[in-house]
Amino acid sequence: MNWNEIDFFPMMGEKLTSENTIKLDFSPTNTDLDSLDLANTATFDNYVTHQIKASGSKYGVGGYLEHRAIYRRSAVFATAEADFRNIHLGVDVWTEAGAPIFATLDGIIHSFQDNAGFGNYGATIILEHELGEKKLYSLYGHLTLSDLEGLKIGQEVKAGELLAHVGPFPENGDWPPHLHFQLIWDLLGNIGDFPGVCSQREVEQYRIICPNPNLILRSEVL
Predict the structure, then answer these.
(1) pTM (global) more than 0.90
(2) Per the database record, which ranges form the M23ase beta-sheet core domain (predicted)?
(3) For residue range 181-198, what is the model confidence (pLDDT) as tens digits?
(4) Which of 102, 110, 163, 217 has the CB geometry, 3.0–4.6 Å to 128, for a possible disulfide?
C-alpha cells in the first residue's frame, strides 16, 4: 500500500509543522524528569505547558516507540520488571484541553468506552477504516467524557468530521491534556481499548501490529 496516495485530513484541523509544534522528549535521557513529581498531574501539566509555550508552539508531539520514563507514575503499567511496559506505541499530541480532534479518513465507529483509572486512557474511541482489502483501526485516547455520548457502533464517520476533543484531567486518565493517537492492524480481540504501551520484550510484535502514526499525521517534526 502506498500511504502517499491517500489524502488524510489534518487530525487537529491543521498540519503539525515546525512553526506550531515542538517535539517533546519523555525518555530517560530527559534529566528534567528525574526531579519532576510525575504523580502530581498539575505539576506534570505545568511542565508540559511550559515546554510548549516557551518554544512559541501550540502543540507538543512525540512518542512512537519511545522508551519512556514517565510510566513510573502509575501502577497501570507495572508488571514483572522484565515486562514493565514503557515503550509507547502511538503518537501523543499535547495541547490545551478542549482542542478539537477530527477524523483523518472515512470510517465507522468500531467501539468506544471510558477506560477509567489513574494513568489509563479515559474516554477512548476506535475507528475502523477500509484501506483496499485491509482494515485499519485508529485509536483516539484521553478524550472528554462527553464525546462518548450519543455514539453508536457502526456509525459512519467522514474524513474532516469533528470526532472528539482533548480531555482535561482527571477525567482523561489523569494526564496533562493530550491526544493519544495510535494505528492498529489487528485489535487482537480488544473492544474500546488496546495497549498503548508495551514492554521491550514485545516491541517487535507490536511494531508490526501498530504502524507509525506519522504515516497519517505527516508531521515534519516527527
Answers:
(1) yes
(2) 87-184
(3) 999 999 999 999 999 999
(4) 110
